[in-house]
Amino acid sequence: MSAIVPHVVIVGGGFGGLWATRALDAAAVRITLIDRCNHHLFQPLLYQVATAGLSSPDIAAPLRHILRKQRNVEIRLAEVADIDAAGKGIVLDDGTRLDFDYLLLASGATHAYFGHDQWAAHAPGLKTLDDALHLRRHLLLAFERAEAEADPAKRAAWLSFAIVGGGPTGVELAGTLAEIARHTLVNEFRNINPSDARVRLIEAGPRVLSSFPEDLSAKACRQLRKLGVEVSTGKAVTDINECGYQLGDEFIAARTVVWAAGVAASPLARSLGVPLDRAGRVLVNPDLSAPGYPNIFIAGDLASVQQDGKPVPGVAPAAKQMGRHVANAIHARLQDRPAPAFAYKDYGNLATIGRMAAIVHFGRLKLSGVLAWWFWLAAHVFFLIGFRNRLIVLLNWTWAYWSYQRGARIILGSDEAGQVRQDRQP
Amino acid sequence: MSAIVPHVVIVGGGFGGLWATRALDAAAVRITLIDRCNHHLFQPLLYQVATAGLSSPDIAAPLRHILRKQRNVEIRLAEVADIDAAGKGIVLDDGTRLDFDYLLLASGATHAYFGHDQWAAHAPGLKTLDDALHLRRHLLLAFERAEAEADPAKRAAWLSFAIVGGGPTGVELAGTLAEIARHTLVNEFRNINPSDARVRLIEAGPRVLSSFPEDLSAKACRQLRKLGVEVSTGKAVTDINECGYQLGDEFIAARTVVWAAGVAASPLARSLGVPLDRAGRVLVNPDLSAPGYPNIFIAGDLASVQQDGKPVPGVAPAAKQMGRHVANAIHARLQDRPAPAFAYKDYGNLATIGRMAAIVHFGRLKLSGVLAWWFWLAAHVFFLIGFRNRLIVLLNWTWAYWSYQRGARIILGSDEAGQVRQDRQP
């Protein structure tokens, strides 16, 4: 019997890491939770921050505050520089080494440009709050540039928006952007008509929201078109530069291209030296431990898990379940029991499209339109962390619903003092 | 009689510029309102964004939205590069020249370091939303650094906060920071006790809030001390570097110094080529026109106006009154009447100190403490633009009041992807 309490290091305060931490509340361990941000982010609503419907603090909560009562947790705001898997230690970016008895890697995913990293400068993605504020700035400035532009062709390019990737994020962004152009900005400009804006959603595969059954996917497509989105499927974007993008034989002038197509696991997985899948995720054992390292676990978007021949999807409920499973596995190990295998329980799938438009697929239940949208809204408010956030988000949405306005339409400067530069893309 | 409608150019969408624009609603002019930000900012609550009590969009509203129904206004998101006063034209940063019949300069003030510009890097100021987010990041990261620091002296330096300048902004920041350290962060750290933080307010003059009568100023000082702020008066800071600051004979280690001491007029005033006061403000004619240029007016913090031997203070009500006055003056000129002289009506003065602490001075009425705080709160909610903002701010404050929490405690990254760098100040 050891007098020293086992040390559990958890990397990442997202759904995987936070749910694991909470599930170890009563365990006789000491936990160090490491994240490079000071907050847990409710990623499913990130597109709302990017499209100026919500403020950053509405969908984030400080990790320290969430975990203030859990006395076995210490939080470190840091980045992990290296993992010494064999020696059971990790090294932080300030050079500190932390030895662990158990490690959970849950550092999530980042966008991937499929080998076209040069596109990143012209087609920003959406994974963090900083990404969302950058994108908000980009979208709002595009209308400002169009208003100031005298040349009709250049003006049209500023009013041409493309979203690459027809998954949930792409669909949400396209639907909301169409609403902004057609409703929110009405009457606000003198030289342009914002509803002339062209919002195009591009999916290389045969249909949008391909994780849903075909009929729901087709309904989503119809709802998108009704909102004013041009949906293009079956053709991939083959080039992106600051003037526009190449789609098949056609080059389309567009000053705003948003990347919602590719996701790759956080590069941290590579430093483990274990087999990865094509997206850089760890091919974990059935108990979510890393091959060859029984004391190292993986959860969330960093884990590649197959179940019934299908991959477990990279969604919040899956990450939470994995987090809780890892906590159970560590419990078991502490009692010298073998860890059980992880089993993903699929409670259903839902995606929002825009104002009063969504699709829902729960077992045999299939909904679309207004009812699905209310369902989506209730679920998302319910799962937000913090009573205050729920209240503020509900208030903002009620306001947006009645007024067609978006409360956070504030351009914050990433260049010095919010200055506007004409010589580069917004 | 000319068929061409006179062109009024207004630079700055703050209290001066926006109130002038609105007051020209029914005038037979076309207005171009120029601002480098897309929003009107309610500056009196900026310290709340810096101290994580409110989000940026809570105290700002898009200028286009505010003015959407006023059809004689066109808004340009741009910076003014030069003014051709004699030739009645201004040049924007993209090279566009706009000719005007009347010009209103209301571009406000910026911080000034009294010839010590090297202090700017170590003692950020607070004038814009970007400043506020920068400061928020700085304040929140200081506690994170202290938590991760093993050396007691270095840790104390991270927990040492100085606010230079005992005017309203300095007092608000000091009071709120003391509340954060003593209440908000309780239980959230494992290696430090946030209430060990030292919050020092430094005023070179003999007393804080010197625009108030002496007895109220003394009461404010007592309230600050009760909240846990060390108040130092009568000694000036003579040096600031990344390790701390020099105050008289003493060098005090502090990793956070906030600059709330000096204000200078926007540099735009200089390009007019007219007499300026020491702070760079235009010494305007009684009707607020610039000396020698009857068609150029100045309002707000850019105007140096004397009344009854005292300067008109740089506060929001004065700027609004000047804005409205300039609109009247332009009305008068359009009808070939002489413009009247500007007369400032002082409705009173109020300043908040912290939780349930404020001072109010309205004519013979002097209040301090809880009652003054409620007065301050009601006034500030009332004067916010937009019903939505009022509702959200009230909700946030009610929440903060009951929970001692601050909803916007989210560190947003100004470096890439919110990464934390250990090798520099936050």
UniProtKB/TrEMBL annotation, chains A, B:
InterPro entries (alphabetical): FAD/NAD-bd_sf (IPR036188), FAD/NAD-binding_dom (IPR023753), NDH-2 (IPR045024), NDH2-like_C (IPR054585)
Keyword Nuclease: no
EC category: oxidoreductase
EC number: 1.6.5.9
SUPFAM superfamilies in the record: FAD/NAD(P)-binding domain
Catalytic activity: a quinone + NADH + H(+) = a quinol + NAD(+)
Spans through the membrane: 370-387
Database matches in PANTHER family: EXTERNAL NADH-UBIQUINONE OXIDOREDUCTASE 1, MITOCHONDRIAL-RELATED, NADH DEHYDROGENASE
Pfam families recorded: NDH2_C, Pyr_redox_2
The species this protein was found in: Pseudoxanthomonas gei
Name the record gives this protein: NADH:ubiquinone reductase (non-electrogenic)
Residues annotated as domain External alternative NADH-ubiquinone oxidoreductase-like C-terminal: 348-398
Domain FAD/NAD(P)-binding, chain residue ranges per copy: 7-323
UniProtKB keywords: FAD, Flavoprotein, Membrane, NAD, Oxidoreductase, Transit peptide, Transmembrane, Transmembrane helix
UniProt record similarity statement: Belongs to the NADH dehydrogenase family.
